Every structure is written in structure tokens, then in C-alpha cells.
């Protein structure tokens, strides 16, 4: 009977250790993924390798913006004019909420910060800065990371 307690404890301890190792693996894998895109370069200039397609330019109406994903991260793609595009991280600089187009601005659902649809500039706090730009360019019919 008493032999069960140490055995059970051992199993639980082992389970925790395995869970911890698995969590560590996930973190390391995420870091490795980011690094692999910039290997060979000593300068990390953006979240995605240059030339990654963000979206078709015509997916975004002129003067508006839409939510997209760049290298697995939430982003905003704006189309200031017929032939130009601008892109920003959708991660709110306040506390990391995901900003999205709403009512003519880019709005954070967590605490209500607002950003300019076409420039990502701060319009209303509590955030203290605008959205982080992601360099993009128009290539043919597509918007790609620059
Ligand atoms: S996280 Fe966006 S306003 Fe607080």
C-alpha cells in the first residue's frame, strides 16, 4: 500500500518535467522559425523575409485597410492610393491587443486606442505610439514585403 504513494509522486513529477520540456521546445521552435528567415544576414529588419506576398493589391479598396497576416503575425494592409500600399503590425503598442479596421480607424478592442487607417499613426490613446510599420512594395498585382 505505501509503495503506491512514492510511485504516484514519481509519475506526477515526471509528468511535470515532460510538460516543462515540451513548453521549452515550443518556445525554442518559435525562436528558430524567426531566426531561419534572417539567417545569412546580420541585420533583422522586419518580421518577414523580403518578397513574401502579403495580399493582392485589389483585395484592399482604395482609401481603406484590411487585416492580414505577415509571417504568421497579425498585420494591417492599407491602400492609400490606387497604386500604393502600406502595412503595419496589428499588435497594439499599448498592451498587445490585435488592432483591426473599425469605423474608419484602426481600433484596439482591449482599451480603445485608435490609429490612422492609412498611416498607422496614433489618433487616440491609451497607446502612446503608432503602429509599427512593416516595409512593403507593390509588385505586379501583389503587395510583398520589402
Ligand atoms: S492593448 Fe490596445 S489599447 Fe490597450
From TrEMBL:
Rieske domain residues: 52-145
Pfam family, one: Rieske
Keywords recorded for this protein, A-Z: 2Fe-2S, Iron, Iron-sulfur, Metal-binding, Signal
Presence of the UniProt keyword Iron-sulfur in the record: yes
InterPro entries: Rieske_2Fe-2S, Rieske_2Fe-2S_sf, TAT_signal
Name of the protein in its database record: Iron-sulfur protein
Native organism taxonomy: Bacteria, Bacillati, Actinomycetota, Actinomycetes, Pseudonocardiales
Signal sequence region: 1-29
Domain of life of the native organism: Bacteria
